[in-house]
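Hi,

I'm pasting everything inline rather than attaching a file, because the server keeps stripping attachments. The sequence lines come first, and each chain or strand is labelled.
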Amino acid sequence: GEDVEQSLFLSVREGDSSVINCTYTDSSSTYLYWYKQEPGAGLQLLTYIFSNMDMKQDQRLTVLLNKKDKHLSLRIADTQTGDSAIYFCAEAYNQGGKLIFGQGTELSVKP
Amino acid sequence: DSGVTQTPKHLITATGQRVTLRCSPRSGDLSVYWYQQSLDQGLQFLIQYYNGEERAKGNILERFSAQQFPDLHSELNLSSLELGDSALYFCASSRLAGGLETQYFGPGTRLLVL
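And the predicted assembly:
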C-alpha cells in the first residue's frame, strides 16, 4: 500500500541539530524526497535520495535511509530560525510519476 | 524560484461555480502534475500529463478535469464547486515522466469556496 508517516511537530533551539523522521510502506519506491514549505509559500525541493543509497549529505542536510525498516530521516545541522517551516517527505514510484507525501512535520526553531 | 508559474495566486468563488487554474511548467519540462493540499487530506496527487497526454490519475473527483496544451501549459478545471474544495492547488513539472524524475513545484493557487 501507499502510506507515508511523519511526526507532526518538532521544536529545537537555534544552533542544535534537528532530526525529522519519516516511515514509508512501499518497498518498490525509487526516489525519496524532502520538501520544505514556508508559511504561505509553495514546496521547495531540499534534497532526495535514491532507494539504493544509505546516506546523502548536502551542506547542512544529511539524509539517512534504512531500507530494511523503511525509515527515512532528515538531519539539519546548526538549525537556524530561518529553517522554521513544514517539512514533507515523499516517495516516488518507478512506474508512475506521482509523489506520495507524508503529513508534514512542523519544525519550530526557538532563539 | 522553481521556474514553475501558476495563476491566479488566489481565487475566491461561490459554491456551484466553475474555475480554471493555470500552470506553466519549467522551460523544457514535458510532464505536469497537479496536487491538492487541504487541512484534512494533506497533499494529494490529482493527475499527471506528459507531452499532452494523460499519464496517471490519482484521487481526482469527476467534477475536476485537466488538460495539457501543445505549448505544454496545463489547466485544471474545477466545476460545481463545494465548500470542501477549498484548498491550495499545486502544479509541479519534471523533464520527463516516471519516478526517476524530480518534480519542481509552483507557488500554488489558493482557492476559497464560500
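Chain A is about 0% helix and 60% strand.

If the labels don't parse on your end, tell me and I'll reformat.
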